[in-house]
C-alpha cells in the first residue's frame, strides 16, 4: 500500500512521542507536508546538504534525522547560509524532513537504551525519569449491548495496557439521560422526549500518543450519533522513559578495560577518560550526546563511571569532585548505535501495516570530520 508521510508520522510518534522532547528542542515534521507520498526513507543522525543529495539520489522522499535544524528563529533561507542551503536542497528535491531528537533519546527503546545495550549493561534502568503526563484516562458511556465491541476496539487501538497486562478496564452500570433535538437521529428514544437509558460507563487508560487513534476506534464501534466520552490527564509517568540509563557491567573490570570495551562496541577511534584508570567498576551510567547535566544524577545513582558523548572541562571537574569517573566517547558514537535498531523497528512496523516503503541508512559518516592527532614528540 502506498503510504503518505502522515501514516509514517503515526509510527514515529509511537516510537518517539513528542511529549518527551525537551522544551528547547525542534522535533516532528520540519519540512514537507503530511500528505506527501513516501516510498523511501533515509535515516541519519544529522541532516547535511550531502545527506539531502544522497536521499535524492536514492529516491527517498523523506529524511528521518536525529538532530534537528531550525532551532533558532528563522528570518531568511539563503543558499549561502549553512541551514539555508540544506532547506533549499530539501525543497528543490521535494524531500520531507522529520526529526526525532530528545524525544527519541528519552523513549523506551530509544538512543539511551540502545547505548546501554551496546555496552552490554545488565538490569538497565532510567537515570532521570521523564515527567508525568504519559497517559490519559478515557471514559465512555454506551448501551450494554455495545460495551463489549467498544472495549475490544479500544484494546486493539493500544488502550488498556498497564505494564505487562492488556485489556485493563473498569465498567459500572448506570442511567444516562438525553433529550434528542429536532434534527437528531437517536439510536434509542424519540425526538423531543427526555430519554432515560440503561448504560455502562467504561474506563480505561491510553498513552497520550495513542489517544487520537483510540478515540477514533471507540467512535467507530459506538452506536450513538453523539457518544459521550471524557479524556482526563493522569499524573503518571511511563516506566522506561527518561534521560540516561544506568546498569551493571558484566564481569569485574577497571576503567581502562571498560573504556577499551566501549571504544570497540561504539566503533570509536579514541575516548577521553577522566579518573583513576585502575578503579574497579561495577555500575555504569550512560547518556547519549551531551550528558553533562546528568553528572550529579549519575553520581547519586551509585554509578562508578558515567559515559556520555561530550564533556566540558567544568563537568569533568564536577565529576572528579563527586568521585565519579567520566568517559567522553564522542557525541556521534554514543548515538550512532541507535540507527540500525531504529531502522529495523520502523521497517517491521511498516511491513506489518503493508506500507510499500523502504527504510535505509545514510552512508554519509557525519562523524568523520573528527581526527585524533598526537603531539610529534
Ligand atoms: Zn545528539
Descriptive account of the structure:
With 377 residues, the chain is of the alpha/beta class. It folds into 3 domains: 3-100 and 338-361, NIF3 (NGG1p interacting factor 3)-like (Udp-n-acetylmuramoylalanyl-d-glutamate--2,6- Diaminopimelate Ligase, Chain: A, domain 1), CATH 3.40.1390.30; 111-130 and 240-336, Udp-n-acetylmuramoylalanyl-d-glutamate--2,6- Diaminopimelate Ligase, Chain: A, domain 1 (3-Layer(aba) Sandwich), CATH 3.40.1390.30; 135-233, Alpha-Beta Plaits, CATH 3.30.70. The chain is built from 12 helices and 17 strands. It has helices at 5-15, 49-57, 82-92, 102-106, 111-118, 144-156, 211-221, 255-266, 295-300, 313-321, 331-336, 339-352; strands at residues 3-4, 28-31, 37-38, 40-44, 62-65, 96-99, 122-129, 135-142, 170-178, 195-207, 228-233, 242-254, 272-274, 280-287, 305-308, 325-328, 358-361. Strands 7-12-14-15-16-13 form a 6-stranded mixed beta sheet, sandwiched between helices. Strands 2-6-5-4-17 form a 5-stranded mixed beta sheet, sandwiched between helices. The chain has a 4-stranded antiparallel beta sheet with strand order 9-10-8-11. Helix 9 (295-300) links the parallel strand 14 and strand 15. The protein is globular, with a radius of gyration of 25 Å. The termini are far apart. The model has no long low-confidence stretch (mean pLDDT 95). The chain binds zinc ion.
Amino acid at each position: 500500500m502506498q503510504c503518505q508521510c502522515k501514516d509514517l508520522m503515526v509510527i514515529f510518534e509511537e516510537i518517539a512521542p513528542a511529549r518527551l522532547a525537551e522544551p528547547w528542542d525542534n522535533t516532528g515534521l520540519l519540512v514537507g507536508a503530511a500528505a506527501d507520498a513516501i516510498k523511501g526513507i533515509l535515516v541519519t543522525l544529522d541532516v547535511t546538504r550531502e545527506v539531502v543529495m544522497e536521499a535524492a539520489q536514492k529516491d527517498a522522499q523523506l529524511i528521518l534525522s536525529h538532530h534537528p535544524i531550525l532551532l533558532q528563529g528563522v528570518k531568511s533561507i539563503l543558499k549561502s547560509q549553512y541551514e539555508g542551503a540544506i532547506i533549499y536542497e530539501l525543497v528543490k528535491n521535494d524531500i520531507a524532513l522529520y526529526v526525532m531528537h530528545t524525544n527519541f533519546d528519552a523513549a523506551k527503546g530509544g538512543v539511551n537504551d540502545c547505548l546501554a545495550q551496546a555496552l552490554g549493561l545488565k538490569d538497565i534502568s532510567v537515570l532521570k525519569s521523564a515527567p508525568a503526563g504519559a497517559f490519559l484516562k478515557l471514559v465512555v458511556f454506551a448501551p450494554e449491548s455495545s460495551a463489549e465491541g467498544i472495549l475490544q476496539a479500544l484494546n486493539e487501538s493500544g488502550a488498556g495496557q498497564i505494564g505487562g497486562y492488556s485489556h485493563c478496564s473498569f465498567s459500572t452500570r448506570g442511567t444516562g439521560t438525553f433529550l434528542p433535538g429536532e434534527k437528531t437521529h437517536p439510536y434509542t428514544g424519540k425526538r423531543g422526549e427526555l430519554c432515560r437509558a440503561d448504560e455502562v460507563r467504561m474506563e480505561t487508560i491510553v498513552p497520550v500518543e495513542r489517544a487520537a487513534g483510540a478515540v477514533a476506534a471507540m467512535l467507530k464501534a459506538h452506536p450513538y450519533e453523539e457518544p459521550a466520552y471524557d479524556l482526563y490527564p493522569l499524573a503518571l509517568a511511563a516506566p522506561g522513559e527518561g534521560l540516561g540509563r544506568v546498569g551493571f557491567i558484566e564481569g569485574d573490570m577497571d576503567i581502562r578495560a571498560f573504556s577499551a570495551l566501549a571504544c570497540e562496541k561504539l566503533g570509536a577511534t579514541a575516548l577521553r577518560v577522566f579518573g583513576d584508570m585502575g578503579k574497579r567498576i561495577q555500575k555504569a551510567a550512560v547518556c547519549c550526546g551531551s550528558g553533562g547535566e546528568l553528572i550529579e544524577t549519575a553520581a547519586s545513582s551509585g554509578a562508578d563511571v558515567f559515559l556520555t558523548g561530550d564533556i566540558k572541562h567544568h563537568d569533568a571537574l564536577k565529576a572528579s569532585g563527586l568521585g565519579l569517573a567520566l568517559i567522553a566517547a564522542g557525541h556521534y558514537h554514543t548515538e550512532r548505535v541507535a540507527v540500525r535498531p531504529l531502522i529495523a523497528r520502523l521497517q517491521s512496523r511498516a511491513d506489518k501495516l503493508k506500507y510499500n516503503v523502504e527504510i535505509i541508512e545514510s552512508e554519509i559518516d557525519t562523524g568523520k570530520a573528527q581526527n585524533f592527532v598526537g603531539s610529534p614528540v
